[in-house]
Structure formats: C-alpha cells, structure tokens
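Practice problem. Given the sequence and the SMILES for zinc ion, write out the predicted structure.
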Amino acid sequence: MIRAACHCGSVRFEIAEPPQWVLDCNCTICRRYGGLWTYFRGPEGQAKLLMTPDPAATEAYTWQDGDIAMHRCKTCGCVTHLVAAKADPPVIFGVNCRMMAGLDPAKVVIRRVDNSHSGFFWTRPDEPVSASRHPVMPPPTFDDWR
Ligand SMILES: [Zn+2]
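Answer key:
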C-alpha cells in the first residue's frame, strides 16, 4: 500500500501498490503542472484505489471538450489527480505520483510521451520518448502562450 497526499493533507489517497511506471507528459497542461501520472483503468485499476479524497477538498480545471478534469487542492493548490469528468459518475483515473510519500523514484520507470510533438522534456529518464496518440495542435497564434 502506498499513500499520496497534497502538501496540506486535505487531499489523500491510499493505493494498493506503488506504480511500476509513471507518465511524464509534455502536453500544454502537464508540462506546466509537472505531474508524473499513474493510471487506474478499468475495474482492475479502480480496485487499487483503496481510499479516495473528499470531492469537496478539490476544485478542477478543464478545457476544450471537458473530458479531463485536473483536480487541485482547494487549500494548498497541489495538482493531485485526474478525473474522467464526462463519465457517469465521474471516475478518478490518474493520480499525480509526486504526491506519493515513501516512493523511491529510482524504482519507478519514467515514460515520456511526446504529446506536445516538440520532443522537449525536463526529465531525462529511462526509456526513449514515445510518439503521441493525439493529433498535432494547430500552431500557436500571436497571443497563444502554449
Ligand atoms: Zn492541500
């Protein structure tokens, strides 16, 4: 079992096992948040979420089609988890591994996916960069800071 919590402790997870790998995504939002994500797909994945936070402890940011809600602690601002916002009910499908206590990064593989199609990453980890499954975004306009 591994625990994850935001800085102030308002948002807490208990997770059945530590991640084998984390995703370092360089998309327009992940590169800003600096999240390293682990995922909980399907019933098997969901079963690993032993304790999830009080929804009242977080607020969320969404954009474009609103599929993904990036949740952050209302108190300390740590970006803690990802919710499939259009699922009924919404489903926590990702947790930011930077919230995990007692996780030895040396024992976790970092996977980089080039979702910005730029090849730019702050990390220099274990595996070659993977190509994105997502379309190339239109080029930034003058006032677009992506
Ligand atoms: Zn907090």
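Check your answer against the key. Residues 42-46 form the longest helix (5 residues).
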